[in-house]
Specification:
Elements: H1 4-22, E1 30-32, E2 35-36, H2 42-54, E3 58-62, E4 65-69, H3 71-74, E5 76-78, H4 80-88, H5 96-99, E6 105-107, E7 111-113, H6 115-129, E8 137-139, E9 148-150, E10 155-158, H7 164-173, E11 178-180, E12 183-186, H8 192-206, E13 210-214, E14 217-220, H9 223-228, E15 230-231, E16 245-246, H10 248-262, E17 269-273, E18 279-284, E19 289-292, H11 295-307, E20 312-315, E21 318-321, E22 325-329, E23 346-351, E24 356-361, E25 364-371, E26 373-375, E27 384-387, E28 390-400, E29 406-419, E30 422-426, E31 435-438, E32 442-444, H12 446-455, E33 461-465
Parallel strand pairs: 1-6, 3-11, 13-20, 17-22, 23-33, 26-31, 30-32
Antiparallel strand pairs: 1-2, 3-4, 5-7, 8-9, 10-12, 13-14, 15-16, 17-18, 19-21, 23-24, 24-25, 27-33, 28-29, 29-30
Helix pairs in contact: 2-4, 10-11
Length: 466
């Protein structure tokens, strides 16, 4: 080994060349986990460390046997860039260059840990060879009146000295270790006492009265309602918070549900009036609308009150929207007809008892009364107020007879459908009219059917009655 004087002389004479040569190389005497990397570039050191790290296998021995795992399986990794940086850290100090000629410097590999992966691996070992501790739980059961606590139980966990420390050392030394796992007693992260403290505080919140008024209505939150707003946060380490929290989304949902119960959609009324303005009939009753306008403010105030452990009473602001009326002025003389038509309004009257069809404009008959054939007793014509929705000048009609057999009527003319398969149409196959015999349609003489077809546009009311 060179003496200190020789080193000084060497540095004095050739120091500049020596420092320039090793500026981007690992200094003499440098090693990583016992293997020399002196004179290697950063890329070469990185490749060396990466190759050695990739060969590491951990043998994990438990009471149930042995298994092989990679560092990654257990949550560990060799940080190659950090290890290389540690090797070349000395290159940044001029005093390191002469020291490197008379001393060695060994670097441990730098190691990182993914705690979630490690915890999962440990939990797997505990599940196969032991029993995990169980946290105390706070719960509101179905039909309950308060939060209750399920006590914590102790269990086992892995002794860190038997696994984590062994694996970490293997990673630092880039060797394949054997970890003989030992189990030690483990306390639950959430103790029974801590859970009971949470339950007591939660029950105190549940006991606080919560009411919201809206006129004559009062909405009172039930214990179960309030319990649904309460949560028990747990930290990333599994520790329970010291106090329950409010789930503001659920609290807001309750407020919104009560506001929805107040909401009434405005319904504008429709009434028929005589030519003199007297109300004949209300066909659609009017209903004022109402809507809560301050639900968001109520939710905020309620959350604030409960957050301060105070009871809450609030009042919904309700906006009223008055309903309006639409009046249909019924034509004079149409008040007692089957349909209260307005002046000049086209409509068709189908009298099933008299077996007649009459086309009106307002109260004035413009076609008929005309004898027709309506549905037979086994296939009656539907009754009600309908509207012509489709028209075709000629078609083949098909359907079922009362006995279940099928029928087909080709070339049926001047068809005006008013609901489903029911229509006004010509019946060339009939020589007489004025009785009940059809499959449900209104059979008319062909000439009359054409008159109705040409006269009645789509949308024309058709009233069928006994």
């Amino acid at each position: 080994m060179a003496s200190a004087g020789a080193v000084a002389l060497l540095v004095g004479v050739g120091g500049t060349a020596y420092a320039a040569h090793y500026r981007d190389l690992a200094l003499p005497g440098s090693s990583v986990a016992g293997v020399s990397v002196a004179g290697k570039t950063k890329d070469e050191v990185a490749a060396n460390v990466r190759e050695r790290a990739g060969k590491i296998k951990v043998t994990v021995t438990t009471r149930s046997g042995s298994r092989s795992a990679s560092l990654a399986d257990i949550g560990y990794a060799v940080d190659v860039p950090a290890t290389v940086a540690a090797v070349f850290d000395a290159n940044s100090r001029w005093t390191s260059y002469p020291k490197a000629l008379v001393s060695s410097r060994s670097i441990k590999a730098k190691v990182t840990v993914d705690q979630k992966v490690l915890d999962k691996f440990v939990a797997g070992l505990v599940a196969s060879d032991g029993k995990a501790a169980v946290n105390a739980k706070v719960a509101w059961g179905e039909g309950a009146s308060s939060f209750t606590v399920t006590p914590a139980t102790t269990g086992l966990t892995v002794d860190p000295a038997s696994l984590q420390q062994v694996v970490a050392k293997g990673a630092e030394t880039l060797t394949s270790p054997t970890a003989t796992v030992r189990f030690i007693e483990s306390q639950a992260a959430v103790s029974t006492a801590a859970a009971q403290g949470l339950a007591d505080k939660a029950n105190a919140l549940v006991a606080l009265p919560v009411t919201v008024n809206a006129g004559s209505k009062t909405f009172t939150a039930t214990p179960a309602d309030k319990a649904s707003w309460i949560t028990f946060p747990v930290s990333a380490e599994g520790k329970a918070a010291t106090a329950p929290s409010l789930d503001k989304a659920k609290l807001t949902g309750w407020v919104d549900a009560q506001a929805a119960a107040v909401k009434v959609d405005v319904r504008n009324g429709v009434r028929n009036v005589s030519s003199s303005g007297a109300v004949l009939k209300v066909t659609t009753s009017a209903q004022d609308g109402s809507e809560v306008t301050n639900a968001a403010a109520i939710s905020t105030a309620l959350a604030s009150a409960l957050g301060s452990a105070k009871a809450y009473t609030g009042t919904f602001d309700v906006k009223t929207t008055p309903a309006t009326w639409t009046e249909r002025r019924v034509a004079a003389g149409a008040e007692n007809l089957a349909y209260p038509a307005t002046d000049g309004e086209k409509w068709v009257d189908v009298n099933l008892s008299a077996h007649t069809m009459t086309a009106y404009e307002g109260a004035r008959a413009v076609i008929g009364p005309v004898a027709m054939v309506n549905g037979a007793p086994a296939t009656p014509t539907v009754q009600g107020t309908f509207h012509i929705y489709s028209k075709t000048p000629l078609m083949t009609m098909r359907g079922s007879n009362a006995d279940g057999t099928n029928y087909e009527a080709p070339d049926v003319p001047w068809v005006s459908f008013f609901t489903g398969g029911y229509a006004l149409h010509g019946a060339y196959w009939r020589s007489s009219f004025g009785y009940a015999a059809s499959h449900g349609c209104v059979n008319l003489p062909v000439s009359v059917a054409k008159q109705v077809y040409d006269w009645a546009p789509v949308g024309t009311p058709v009233v069928t009655h006994g």
